Structure formats: structure tokens, C-alpha cells
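Progress report, Aim 2. The chain analyzed during this reporting quarter is listed below.
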Amino acid sequence: MTPWSNSGVSTTAIAQEAEPEIKDLAELIGAKVILGEESTLLKALEPLPDFAVVSPGFSPNHPLVQELLARKIPIYSDIDLAWRLRDKTDRVARWLTVTGTNGKTTTCELVAHMLRTGGQRAVACGNIGNPILDMIRDPEGFDFLVVELSSFQLHYSHDFEAEVSAFLNFAEDHLDWHGSLDDYFVAKSKIFNQTSGAIVFNEEDAKTFDAAKAAVVQEGARGVSFTLGVPGKSMVGYVEEFLVDRAFLAERADAALEIADLDDLGQIGEITIQLRQNVAAATALARAVDVPPVVIKQAIASFRLAPHRQQLVAIRDEVRFVDDSKATNAHAAAGALASFESVIWIVGGLLKDVDITPLVKKHASRLKAAVLIGADTSELERLFSEELPQLPLRVMTGKPMSQVVVVAAEIAAAGDTVLLAPAAASMDQYRDYADRGEQFQMAVQGLMS
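Predicted C-alpha cells for the chain:
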């Protein structure tokens, strides 16, 4: 039971199905559980709810969501609910929020690590594996919640007010859920709404700047950007091998504060474009809440990436095998492809109604061959035959990763990189992107034995 169980709220959970232990737990804490076809359940629910908290798995076109809207029942996200219940413990956390097409998880985890290195009790949560509603029930509470927000959560959110918020980047994704690129952008842009301290955007990404310009923030909130280049005033960026801050020091018009160098970033992993962007963004977020430079430098050097993010698995006969299974969209895959010169690209899966033609054309010069995976590779076969008809192609429709890796390794020569960066979701063949990455890593280790 939580410290605020007796809230006077009567709760009903609606779902098609539920694991028995989840159903039992819900009933134990006094929630009514109704299982069946969701589109018809609301019609039988009496009395009608005062509001509904909708799982981000339900798209706006889902019949249940449409029924809620038709009945004018307010819809909220788990983030809204957490915000309303945030002050039920003695220690009330300050909220930092992060969204973007890519890099959210790494940035959130790094910010939380910076805060903890500085002695704060902080946790990365939200769309990251730690549900925010679990975090706000922690009896000890937290000094900071670093909240990763998906576009799905933001679509249904209304009420939260972050102290610092960041929009890392924007590219085509999740059109199957949102329906259009404009709707996807509108959802992402909500990250900045009612921010009280600072909004952080990407100097190299015009769409994040557009969102910043249009944001309705609290009086006194600052705009700060991050860049891969030399930073101007109110920016965090790089001067040669140094990461520097020109946003959070009094002399920012004429001076920069050294934070770390590329040797520190190299302790994390390969210094890719994506890594440099994530570190700069995380630094801006941490500096916005007064984390000292020396602490940030220490945190960067001691941070480690989560698996399946441009992870070097092995080197065999001077061929690198890199697992970037987390690259579930074209934007993420672009960052991976840009990091290597000669690539045997393992690509495919659920494309989520996104056209990856621009990605293929942009990085054509880096491709030595492509190995197509997924339950259905016909769309990719057509794309490569039209755009890169001379590129060696291996079609592995529905084949296990063990066979895929063997085929890719046979093509590779010294200096090449076998890169798993599918630019697609994984659920057509795998449990999730982590399962796909683990299968890749096991297959690579099999080559080494």
C-alpha cells in the first residue's frame, strides 16, 4: 500500500486481457478490473468515470479512445496523474523532462547519473523502464525525477510543469500511431509547455527551435541550445576537443566554461555524433539545475551506455560487429551509419509507415552491402532495387539472426563494419529491440568460437 492509498478515488481498469497476478494485485488495492473487448466495455460501465488515464499503447483512433472523446470524458496520461500526486511524500522531486525522436534514454540516464554523482537522489523514469507512478510512490522520495517522455505520452498529457525540459531532435517516426508528421510534431512540442526554468533545444535541428519559439513557458524561463560546433551565447557545445558551457555562467557573453574533453567522452564508448549530442544536451540539463562542472566531468567519465546502442560486440579479422538494435527508426540508423566508413548494413523489420528512401540515398556511399531482415522484406527489396541496384543485397526474410550474421560476415573484409541498425521496430520477429540485439550478440559470439 502506498502512503496515500486512501485517496477517496474509485478506480476501474479496462483491458482486453491481463496476467493473473496483475489482476489479483489490482483487486487487492481496491481497483475493479473489467476484461474483454475494450471498444464495448465503456458502454457497460456505470457510472461513467470522471476521467480516464489512457495507456500510451492506445492510439488516438482506438475505439475506446474515440468513445471517451464522444462522451466528453477527460483523458489524461500517467504523467498527468504522477504530477497531480507528486507531493504525497515528504521529499517532493524537481522534474526534468526529455523528448526527441532519438537519444532520449541515454540523455536521461546520463542526467540522472550526473545528479547522483553530485549527491542528489535522482532517477530516470517514464518511457524508460521505470514507470513514473512507481517512482512517486517511493516512501523516501527523490530530489529529481528525470522523465523520458514519448510522443504517445505527450499526446495525452496536459498538466505537468517541468523545471527544465529538452527537445533533442525531430525526424519522421510513429506515423502509424499519430497519423501525420504534423501531429507527431505537435505532440513532441508539448514538452516545453509551462516549463519554469529553462528549455533546451538542438541548435542543428530547426524543428526543435520552432517548438522553442512557439512554447508557452512560465515567466523567467530561459532558452538554451546545444550544438556540435563552437557555441554562441546561451549554448553548450564544443571547442576543438573540449565540451564547454556558454549558457550558465555570468560571463557567457565573452567566455566559456570548460566541462570535459573527448577523452572523458571516450570512456563512455565510441565518440559518435549521437554520443556528442547526447552529452551536450545532458550537460545543458544538469547545468540548468546548478550541477558543478567538476561533477559533470566526473559523471561523463564514469557513465556507461545501456546495451544495444552502437555497442561494439567484437572485432574479428579487423571486422567490427556493432549492435545498434535500438535504432528503431531512420533517424537513429542515420546516426549509426554516419559513424562508420564501410558498412555491411543489417536492416529491416516493422517500418511503421516511414519511408527510409532518404536514409538509403544519403548513406549510399558508406554501404558495401545490405542484409535485409524481417518477416516481410518486400518493401526494402523494392527500395534497394530502385535506388541502389548495384549494391550487393542478401535477403534473409524470416531467417534467424544466427544465419543473418554468418551471411554478413562472409561479405565483410578487413576495415568493414557489420552494423545492426535496422531502422525499424522489431516485433515482427522478436520480443523487442533488446531481444533482437541479444540475438545478434549471441550470433557474433558464435562466430568467435
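The longest helix spans residues 273-288. The chain has three domains: 12-76, 79-302, 311-448. These observations will guide the mutagenesis work planned for the next reporting period.
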